[in-house]
């Protein structure tokens, strides 16, 4: 079974679990690294706030977690 983060994981938690996720965050034009709200925003929150496709962002972050980025 591939590693996965929960739907309620914050962007900060995701970036800490997988430093490769930082590249994905930056690639999507988000500046979550160092942002004080990253410890509160889930993927859904971040996608909505940045007008991004939530499913694509989630998939890209999941891929980074398992080393497919």
Automatic annotation (TrEMBL):
Leader sequence residues: none
Alphabetical list of InterPro entries matching this protein: CHP03980_redox-disulphide, DUF1858, ScdA-like_N_sf
Gene3D superfamilies attached to this UniProt entry: SP0561-like (1.10.3910.10)
Protein name: DUF1858 domain-containing protein
DUF1858 domain residues: 8-57
Top-level lineage group: Bacteria
Annotated Pfam families: DUF1858
Natural source organism: Mesorhizobium erdmanii
NCBIfam families per record: prismane_assoc (TIGR03980)
